[in-house]
């Protein structure tokens, strides 16, 4: 019987390569925290608190003015175990299963890779920065340049670690609109032969069919929605003017408050652009048309060195929204490498059966293949497992590009 599990180590290494090559979006993620987990003799459990870089006020003149040192953290949790499980009888293995790697292993690795990317692309709900891709393909280039501008205004370093992940129809529209536009001969050849963008507008481009789809809230009464109380700061805002007792906003919606400008993270001066805020939970208005909207980032004003805006919303300031109400948009993602982090952790060795683990020293990805047998049923189960966690550690270094599905 040709049983490829006799070379289980070779099988696992091949599946790892497939996993690595089919994870499109997470290729642009930071992996700096991966080595902290599952270290023999120094295990830190399933959570790692990551210190956020503090911000300071610059003083003028010779006088000494002490300021508080406030540490903030975000938490990376290893909380996602994904696996593909199959089981064959001895008869099936003897008479039918002549190439487990080709028929089971390879599709399993590709499916696991897609699951990782799907989870990664759902992190769009942590990202506030947004631009809307026009429905006219010929005008799309400007908005992708705007995405880079937004990231630079948000403090992204001016290096080469920027990526964009787009869904296939949006990629087709962008390639068609920009074919041959100010490109090197190598880039032109790649577009023509592969039908893909490779480098444009400061980003490395990649296609991913797992790009998330977001449906905006109904916004009942949203045209008359206003800020209720002057000077509000923090992570929730009191608003009024909604239709009474209605679901008005969905988690992941993006809004702005009239007159509330984004603050440059270094100088605290206005960037000249309204600050985007993402809604962090579904919002329902009460019987009086009032609604408290949970938002990120929080509204923080100068002179606090963590300021996100130049001023708090005025009383009766109208609310503005990204995208149309009750409409579905793909959430293509532009980001700097430091916007997101992912950690794929090697799973423990099982105590029975045969197994193999493989890890990529370049990017830390790890997969475990495990095969066992049941003497009572004459069945032979096998599974391919991965364990990972991910986090939007610096959401301001990412930008959502909203595109309407099917517009090409």
Low-confidence stretches: 1-6, 188-195
The counted number of beta strands is 24
Please give the largest β-sheet. 7 strands, mixed
Rg from Cα: 25 Å
> Please, what is the average pLDDT?
84
Note the beta-strand portion. 25-35%
> N- to C-terminal separation?
51 Å
**Oligomer type:** single chain
Outline type: globular
The total of helices stands at 6
Structural class: alpha+beta
Describe this structure in words.
The chain has helices spanning 8-22, 90-95, 100-121, 140-153, 168-178, 185-194; strands at residues 47-52, 72-77, 80-89, 130-132, 162-166, 199-200, 203-207, 213-215, 226-227, 234-240, 247-249, 254-257, 261-263, 270-274, 277-279, 283-284, 291-299, 319-321, 328-336, 341-344, 354-359, 366-371, 379-391, 398-403. The protein folds into 3 domains: 4-61 and 69-123 and 343-389; 129-214 and 330-338 and 397-403, 2-Layer Sandwich (hypothetical protein PF0899 fold), CATH 3.30.2320.10; 217-324, Elongation Factor Tu (Ef-tu), domain 3 (Beta Barrel), CATH 2.40.30.290. By secondary structure, it is α+β, with helices and mostly antiparallel strands. The longest helix is centred in the N-terminal third of the chain and has 22 residues, at 100-121. The strands form 6 sheets. Strands 4, 5, 6, 7, 8, 19 and 24 form a 7-stranded mixed β-sheet that branches. Strands 9-10-17-15-12-18 form a 6-stranded antiparallel β-sheet, with no helix packed on it. Strands 3, 20, 21, 22 and 23 form a 5-stranded antiparallel β-sheet that branches.
């Amino acid at each position: 019987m040709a049983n490829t599990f006799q070379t289980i180590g070779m099988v696992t290494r091949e599946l790892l390569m497939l996993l690595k090559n089919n994870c499109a979006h997470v290729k642009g993620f930071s992996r700096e925290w991966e080595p902290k987990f599952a270290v023999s003799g120094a295990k830190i459990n399933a959570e790692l608190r990551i210190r956020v870089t503090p911000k300071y006020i610059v003083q003028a003149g010779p006088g000494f003015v002490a300021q508080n040192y406030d540490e903030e953290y975000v938490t990376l949790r290893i909380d996602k175990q994904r696996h593909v499980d199959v089981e064959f009888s001895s008869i099936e293995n003897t008479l039918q299963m002549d190439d487990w790697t080709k028929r089971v292993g390879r599709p399993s690795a590709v499916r696991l890779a897609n699951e990782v990317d799907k989870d990664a692309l759902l992190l769009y709900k942590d990202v506030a920065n947004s631009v809307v891709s026009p429905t006219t393909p010929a005008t799309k280039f400007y908005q992708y340049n705007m995405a880079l501008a937004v990231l630079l205004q948000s403090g992204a370093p001016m290096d080469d670690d920027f990526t964009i992940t787009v869904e296939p129809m949006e990629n087709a529209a962008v390639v068609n609109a920009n074919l041959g536009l100010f490109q090197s001969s190598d880039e032109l050849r790649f577009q023509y032969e592969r039908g893909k963008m490779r480098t444009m507008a400061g980003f490395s481009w990649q296609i991913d069919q797992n790009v998330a789809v977001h449906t905006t809230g109904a916004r009942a009464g949203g045209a008359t929605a206003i800020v209720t109380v002057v000077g509000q700061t923090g992570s929730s805002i009191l608003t009024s003017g909604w239709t009474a007792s209605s679901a008005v906003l969905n988690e992941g919606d993006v809004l702005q408050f009239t007159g509330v400008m984004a603050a440059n993270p270094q100088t605290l001066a206005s960037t000249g652009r309204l600050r985007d805020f993402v809604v962090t939970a579904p919002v329902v208005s009460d019987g009086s048309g009032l609604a408290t909207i949970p938002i990120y980032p929080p509204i923080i004003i100068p002179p606090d060195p963590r300021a996100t805006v130049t001023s708090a919303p005025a009383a009766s300031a109208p609310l503005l929204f990204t995208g149309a109400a009750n409409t579905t948009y793909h959430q293509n993602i532009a980001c700097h490498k430091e916007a997101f982090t992912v950690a794929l952790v090697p799973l423990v060795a099982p105590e029975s059966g045969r197994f193999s683990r493989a890890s990529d020293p370049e990017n830390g990805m790890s997969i475990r293949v495990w095969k066992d047998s049941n003497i009572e049923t004459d069945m032979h189960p096998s599974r391919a497992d991965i364990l990972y966690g991910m986090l939007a550690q610096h959401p301001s270094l990412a930008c959502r590009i909203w595109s309407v599905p099917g517009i090409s």
